[in-house]
Design goal:
CATH architecture: Alpha-Beta Barrel
Strand order of the largest sheet: 1-2-3-4-7-8-9-11
CATH class: Alpha Beta
Number of helices: 12
Order of helices and strands: EHEHEHEHHEEEHEHEHHEHEHH
Helix content: 40-55%
Strand content: 15-25%
Low-confidence stretches: 1-16, 363-370, 381-388
Number of domains: 1
Radius of gyration: 20 Å
C-alpha cells in the first residue's frame, strides 16, 4: 500500500509495521438535500461528490472511495467515472471503489475500467471487490440470486488472473471462457491494489488470502472487536498459502462535526430514516436512541462525534483489530452539502493528525464520555416521545 503520506509506518497491534497508516473516506454518493431539506438532483449530488474528493486531497486525506449503488438514496451506479473526474483534478490522493459489486459485473470490464483509472491517476487507483450486501444490481443486470456465492467465487478467480498481466486463459461455468486473450490497457508498474470487502464471512477472509488480495473489514453494526479473529485468520491463511502479510483495513460509517452534540443532531435523524427504510428489504432492526447510544459508544460501529471523539475511537479500533487502514463512510441521504463538506474538512485537518498522534504515542486510548452523557439525555427524551 502506498496511499498514505506518513513517513514512518505506525504499528497497530497484531499488524506488521511494514504497512503505513492509511486514513481515508468513503461515500456511496448519498443523495443530498439543500438547506430547506429539498432533495437535490442526482446530477448535482454526483457533481458534489467530485468536489468532495477534491477537498479530501486538499485537507490531507489519504484515500477517497466511492461505493457502487443503484437506488434513489444512493444514485452512484458508475463510481469509476466519478473517480476519474476526481483523479483528473488531484495529484496525491488515492482513489478507488468503496465496493465494486463484482458478482453482477464482468471482471474483464472491471479490470479495464480500473486500469484506465490507474492510468488517469498515474498509479493511484485501487479496487475493493464485494459480493453485494445490497442486491439491487442483481435483477437490474439479470443475475440470479441463487448463484450469489458461485458468481463471486468464479469472478474473483478471473479477476486474480487478469491482475497478473499478459494474455489470459481461463475457464468457468457462469461466464464465457478466455483463450490466450489480450486485455488492455496494460498497467504501469505492476497491478493496482485490490481488496476484498468482508462483512462477516470467514470464507471470504480465506478467499482474500488465497488470491493475494488485501482485507477490508466492513463493520456497520455491533462491536468491531468481534472482527479481530478475522484479522488473525487472514494472517494465518496468508501464511498457509505461502504469501507475505498484506494490509488489513476497516470501513465503518460515521459523521464528524464541530461538537459531539452537533454531530449527533445532524446524523441521527438521517440514520433513523435510511435504516428504517432499508429494514423493509434487508431486515435491519429499526434503530432507537438506546441502540444508537451503544453504536456511538466505545464498543459500537458508528464513528459519530467531534474530531477528538472520532479520532480516539478510530485509534482504539485500529489497535484492537490489528489494522493499518481506516476508511470513514461519510455522508447520509438527506444531509446538506455544507455539513458533508465540513465533515471532510474536520476529518482531514483534525481527526487524521490526532489519530496519527495517538497511535505514535502507543498508549491506551479511551473514548471520551461527553457523548455518552448527551446520548443518555436524548435517549430518555426519545423514549418518552415514542412510548418505548
Amino acid at each position: 500500500m502506498t496511499t498514505s503520506t506518513t513517513k514512518t509506518p505506525v504499528e497497530a497491534s497484531g499488524t506488521s509495521n511494514r504497512f503505513p497508516l492509511v486514513l481515508g473516506l468513503d461515500t456511496f454518493g448519498d443523495h443530498e438535500h439543500d438547506a430547506e431539506d429539498r432533495p437535490l438532483s442526482h446530477a448535482q449530488t454526483i457533481r458534489n461528490v467530485v468536489e468532495e474528493g477534491v477537498l479530501a486531497e486538499q485537507v490531507g486525506v489519504d484515500f477517497f472511495g466511492i461505493g457502487e449503488h443503484h437506488t434513489d438514496d444512493f444514485p452512484m451506479p458508475a463510481a469509476d467515472v466519478v473517480l476519474a473526474a476526481i483523479a483528473a483534478r488531484t495529484q496525491r490522493i488515492h482513489v478507488g471503489s468503496a465496493v465494486t459489486v463484482l458478482s453482477s459485473d464482468d471482471p474483464v470490464r472491471v479490470f479495464q475500467r480500473f486500469s484506465t483509472l490507474n492510468a488517469i491517476s498515474s498509479g493511484r487507483a485501487e479496487v475493493i471487490l464485494g459480493r453485494g450486501s445490497s442486491i439491487d444490481s442483481f435483477p437490474l443486470f439479470g443475475y440470479d440470486l441463487a448463484d450469489y456465492e458461485d458468481l463471486f467465487e468464479e469472478k474473483v478467480n478471473l479477476f486474480a488472473e487478469l491482475l497478473k498481466g499478459g494474455p489470459v486463459t481461463w475457464q468457468g461455468n457462469l461466464r464465457p471462457s478466455l483463450h490466450n486473450q489480450d486485455v488492455v490497457p496494460y498497467t504501469e508498474g505492476g497491478p493496482f491494489p485490490a481488496w476484498i470487502g468482508v462483512g462477516g464471512s470467514p470464507q471470504s477472509v480465506v478467499r482474500a488470502a488465497h488470491y493475494g488480495f488485501s482485507l477490508m473489514l466492513a463493520i456497520i453494526g455491533g462491536s468491531p472487536a468481534r472482527f479481530r479473529p478475522f484479522s488473525q485468520l487472514f494472517l494465518q491463511a496468508l501464511e498457509r498459502f505461502g504469501r507475505e502479510p498484506l494490509p488489513v483495513g476497516v470501513h465503518s460509517p460515521g459523521h464528524v462535526a464541530d461538537t459531539d452534540e452537533k454531530a449527533l443532531e445532524e446524523f441521527w435523524p438521517r440514520w433513523l430514516q435510511i435504516i428504517t427504510k432499508m429494514s423493509k428489504v434487508r431486515g435491519f432492526a429499526i434503530p432507537t436512541m438506546e441502540s444508537l447510544k451503544f453504536e456511538i459508544g466505545p464498543r459500537g460501529a458508528l464513528f459519530v462525534g467531534s474530531p477528538e471523539t472520532v479520532a480516539q475511537k478510530i485509534a482504539a479500533n485500529l489497535k484492537t483489530l490489528g489494522a493499518n487502514r481506516f476508511d470513514l463512510k461519510f455522508g447520509m441521504p438527506g444531509l446538506s452539502p455544507d455539513s458533508v463538506m465540513r465533515n471532510i474538512e474536520l476529518y482531514g485537518t483534525k481527526v487524521i493528525p490526532r489519530v496519527r498522534e495517538l497511535l505514535a504515542e502507543s498508549t491506551d486510548v479511551e473514548l471520551p464520555s461527553r457523548l455518552q452523557s448527551d446520548l443518555t439525555e436524548r435517549s430518555g427524551a426519545s423514549d418518552r416521545q415514542t412510548g418505548q
